[in-house]
Design brief:
This protein is mainly alpha-helical. It has seven helices and no strands.
Amino acid sequence: MISGPFTIAFVSEAAESACGADAFTPAPSNRWETPSMSDAISHTSSDREPQHPAAPLHPELVALLVEAAGAPPGWADRLTPGARLDGDLLLDEGELAALAGRLRERFGPAADLARLRAGLDLAALEALTVADLQKLIPEEGSR
């Protein structure tokens, strides 16, 4: 095995070319005010196959997301149906629990985010999007 500074440089270059240079950018200290955060939210679907049609977001869902996340003004303007709760919006477990409670309170037992999350594996949890939340909201006539 080769060791030393050249090995590290080679591994770093190989990893960077495989993953892209952005994969090695340090994490932002403030998740609300970084350009990369707004880019991730605005352009979430551009780097993968769209899973959901671009339907308008339910305004009450947007309000509940903002409230649960404690997000600043203007954050909601960048939400898209394809924005991932974990990877793009960076919602932590406490915020997801708060959101789950607010969804059930506002839309009833059919809007059960906790039950949805309990049935998912890690990859599916990471892929959970705002559009998936919107599917939990009952149709207007069935509430």
